[in-house]
Design a protein that fits this description.
single chain, mainly beta
Length: about 575
């Protein structure tokens, strides 16, 4: 397996610094500005941006232009001030927005008394599609920018279509927000986050987010989720009566059809959680053409009214582990003790995972590359059954809705094992969408909503969607994330519905966190951990890994100075694998 670049540690450190500076924003973004967002009600206050300075040198003017280009208000009006009159009228800023690591300028075209030409070179880190959809992307960018004097001042008179924004400027002007859609496949009250990037200081954020909900999910999620917010709906700021000082926000929907009671609740869940998670204060007074959407909530909805849809519910920490000597053990305040039953007789187990109901267990036995590996499945208080075997085994992972176990056998066969009958039944799914990504599949994990699948192929991390109709992986939906990790990823787990944790086959930054859209790649604590990492799991604020020595846990909610990896009480110096839902 190839390794990540030697400079990876420094790169990841830069990511962490950028995140701190951006109050949690992403590390890498680019492509067209969120035009859909900009068609909503205009912001009432524009951020402070550079303006042309009299007698400014041409290279400095170009740099200020790049800073101003990060402000998309009014068709990038701030940036157009740096262009000649003709160029300002013809520049197509909507063609593409590219976020780059750093823009380097060189006057290769020369500079005269009234003409100057600069070559802009930069490393691309992503694209921002219409609707604020970030797509991680690598490669080099090279563009030519020409300037001339207009009324004695340097102005840009020729530049390519689209917008180029340096990462630092992107972080200071954009912020990530989650839109929420309903999980498909009979998931009921499960919500799926769809991260979008919008202007960080929008004063009309609530209205713009709800309008954006009406445009639907990103293409990769189209066949995996559904929405009660139809494309026909639009919203407008509620002017209300003068002197109305009620807390919260009133959103008046037009074009909204009559909904059943259940559909109304699902509609409200999407809207309320989208607004609440973006720090738009409630209560949320939802109206249809000026009248309350539901008379029971005339004074507004709160998150408690749709608590069943909470996309980030609280999760208990790990209660079981799988040890080499004692099989399954229970973790208690006093330490670890054998769980009893036939699972405590299992030896050589790895990759243990528990169903989301807490009633089923799946374990892979045998060492990779050392003979046959077996997949065992069964009730956690009962007897395991062998359901598959092969020389290589990726997984297992439980589907949260139907309780089926998934595994990839011999890098070729994707199996779905039903566990709800008396005997497990094995079905082979189309593995094509995963096999198209590469040759060696080392890990796969279904998210908590049952709508998305994370896989590691040839040391790279990919996320794709699962069909709401068939539950199978969707062709064309998989995209690589965490490119800064190179080809060093070995294991993966969902920390929550919008974040993954990746264990790496390296001693430098052996554990990293990646946002589901690929925008954030951040190393977790490197204190008291010795990579490579062979297992990773997450439960709430805690992350669990197996490093060279033992099973460790990290409390990600602890104060920064206290974030170090600690051994599990009762399992110190004992080889064990974590057992959590996933």
């Amino acid at each position: 397996m190839s390794r990540a670049p030697a400079a990876l540690t420094q790169v990841l450190a830069l990511f962490a610094v950028a995140l701190l500076g951006a109050a949690g924003c992403a590390t890498l973004p680019s492509s067209t500005p969120p035009q859909v967002v900009d068609t909503f009600a205009p912001s009432e206050a524009a951020p402070t941006v550079p303006t042309p300075i009299p007698d400014q040198e041409p290279d400095l003017l170009v740099r200020d232009f790049l800073k101003a280009a990060a402000i998309a208000d009014q068709r990038h009006a701030a940036a157009r001030q740096f262009l000649t009159t003709d160029a300002a009228e013809t520049w197509d800023a909507s063609a593409e927005t590219t976020i780059v690591l750093r823009a380097d300028l060189s006057a290769e075209g020369g500079r005269g008394a009234d003409r100057a030409e600069y070559t802009l070179r930069a490393e691309k880190v992503g694209t921002l599609d219409p609707g604020g959809i970030f797509r991680e992307e690598g490669g080099q960018l090279e563009e030519t920018i020409e300037l001339t004097r207009q009324d004695g001042q340097w102005r840009i008179d020729s530049l390519p279509p689209g917008v180029v924004i340096e990462r630092a400027e992107f972080f200071s002007t954009y912020a990530p927000r989650d839109l929420f859609f309903l999980a498909g496949g009979g998931a009921g009250d499960e919500l799926v986050p769809d991260p979008r990037w919008t202007a960080a200081d929008r004063t009309d954020l609530g209205y713009s987010l709800v309008n954006l909900l009406a445009t639907g999910p990103r293409p990769a999620l189209t066949d995996a989720v559904s929405s009660r917010v139809p494309a026909s709906v639009s919203v407008r700021p509620n002017t209300g009566e003068d002197g109305d000082e009620r807390p919260g926000i009133t959103i008046d929907f037009t074009g909204l059809p009559v909904l059943s009671s259940q559909a109304t609740t699902e509609f409200a869940a999407q809207v309320v959680w989208t607004l609440a998670r973006s720090d738009v204060a409630g209560p949320y007074r939802l109206e249809r053409d000026g009248a309350p959407l539901d008379e029971r909530f005339r004074d507004g909805w709160t998150t408690e009214d749709v608590r069943a849809f909470d996309p980030y519910p609280s999760v208990e920490p790990m209660r079981h582990a799988l040890t080499a000597a004692d099989g399954l053990v229970s973790l208690e305040d006093g330490g670890a003790r054998p769980a009893g039953g036939e699972w405590s007789e299992v030896r050589g187990g790895h990759a243990a995972v528990m169903s989301h109901s807490g009633r089923q267990l799946a374990v892979v036995t045998g060492e990779e590359g050392q003979g046959e590996r077996r997949l065992l499945v069964g009730p956690i208080d009962g007897a395991p059954d062998e359901v598959a075997s092969g020389a290589a085994m990726a997984g297992p992972t439980f589907h949260p809705v139907d309780g089926a176990v998934w595994a990839m056998v011999d890098n070729s066969r994707l199996l779905r094992i039903a566990t709800r009958g008396e005997d497990p039944s094995v079905e082979e799914l189309d593995a094509g969408p995963i096999l198209a990504l590469g040759s060696r599949v080392s890990a796969l994990r279904i998210d908590q909503s049952g709508s998305q699948l994370a896989v590691i192929v040839d040391g790279k991390v990919f996320v794709g969607s699962l069909s709401a109709e068939t539950g199978a992986p969707q062709p064309g939906s998989f995209r690589q994330i965490g490119r800064a990790l190179g080809e060093s990823a070995s294991v993966v787990a969902w920390r929550d519905r919008s974040t993954l944790v990746v264990g790496r086959d390296t001693t430098d930054a052996p554990v990293a966190s990646i946002s589901v859209d690929g925008a954030n790649t951040v190393p977790l604590s490197q204190r008291n951990i010795a990579g490579p990492v062979t297992a990773v799991a997450a439960a709430g604020r805690e992350v669990y890994v197996v490093d060279q020595r033992s099973l460790l846990r990290l409390d990600t909610g602890a104060e920064t100075n206290d974030r170090y990896w600690r051994e599990i009480n009762g399992l110190a110096a004992i080889r064990a694998d974590p057992v959590v839902a996933g």
